[in-house]
Amino acid sequence: MRKLLPVFSFGYSIALLVLSLVTVKEIAGFPNQSDKVLHVLAHVILTGLWFLTLNQFYRKGINQAKTIALVVSILFGILIEVLQHTATQSREADFKDVIANILGALIAVLLINLIIKMKVKNY
Description:
Elements: H1 5-21, H2 35-57, H3 62-86, H4 95-122
């Protein structure tokens, strides 16, 4: 499993990038701004995957892996918004999406801290 972590992380990152740049038609029945929940969830997963990859595969320390995963997730989210504005005609950059991406990355770090704390407590 450890050997596949970079494949999962890079694959998820590429899939997230592609899905963020392709044309998406409005889905009937979805409340306005409900995509923010998807942004949060996407960046919880992105940050978590990169944390695991950095910590388990690349053998970075826990704090270093958390910091790098957090920064990468935030910068990746900003890059996607910039690309939506500059490289597509069908997508728009949205500052609220950036906030949702940052929130997702921060939630991931909080969850990682909670899981680590629970692991230490059980030893």
